[in-house]
Amino acid sequence: EGLTKWVMKPRRDAGTNGVFMVETLEEARAAWDNITGRTTIFGESNDTVLIQEFLKGKEYVVDTVSHDGVHKAVAIWEYDKVLVHGSAFVGMDDHLYESADGLKEEELAAYTFEVLEALGVSYGCCHAEVMWVEAEQLPCLIEVGTRPHGAGGNFPALCDPVIGYNQLDVSLDAYLAPERFAAVPRRPGPHRGAAAQYKVINRVDGVLESVDLSRLEAELPSFRGVDLHAHPGDRVRRTVDLVTCPAIVRLQHADREQVDRDRRALRRLERGMLTVRPAKGAGAAAHRAAPCADADLPEDLYTLVLATH
């Protein structure tokens, strides 16, 4: 009662695959047909749909490790998302989060620990997605998986220099070196620099002809690598979720402002990263993609996003 927006998604999937925001019964029916008519990224068929209240706020990930009922929040990530190609679930990046006073991190950790207790989680890794609800200034669970952070398994290289440890090592310590697990704080302390996973947005349906990373390596001091989700010869679609994101650029530096500058610079440099031959009917010439059209993402968008941190 009183709700005007809902989120519909598969009960078991990942990468925002098959996630829809709906406002009308017609949109809900269309989302239902789309979700139940597709296969998850795990190769399973969808026969049920989860409907959730749409929450307005900022989304966070709280990565945890538990052992014998003792919970540790080992990393907290903040998501920056933007409306592109009609989808409200396109990520610009996620970055290790640190506030000035640590109060929000403490609330996010405490809330997530309560979720783990309610679910009976006493051992292992968890990856919780939590919305910081704007109107109430309180956390609210979106979903939680009893698994480590994803990101192609490359997140330890971002967490180690900034936090001093990572979820996988802490999980191993819980079993093999209990004294080291006991020494890990309840949540991360002061960060040493910053780290982010920048998500490239593709706006052209077609075939990926080439990928050029040379300018990233030369011009971004915080550049630490790229996880390519598409390779030359692959068909690529316009980005509407994480599944259709063609690449993730990893950034990490001891100077937080350097990472922020490089996040802004990527808005410009990513325009020359991908060369895509448009699909039939979309034009014959190869498109040296501006993965985000100016009409979709203004050049100063990162300035606006970063100003809120």
TrEMBL record:
GO MF annotations, alphabetized: ATP binding; ligase activity; metal ion binding
Gene3D superfamilies linked to this entry: ATP-grasp fold, B domain
Pfam families: ATP-grasp_4
Keyword Nucleotide-binding tagged: yes
Start and end residues of each ATP-grasp domain: 7-176
SUPFAM superfamilies per record: Glutathione synthetase ATP-binding domain-like
InterPro entries: ATP-dep_AA_Ligase (IPR052032), ATP-grasp (IPR011761)
Protein name: ATP-grasp domain-containing protein
Native source organism of the sequence: Heterosigma akashiwo
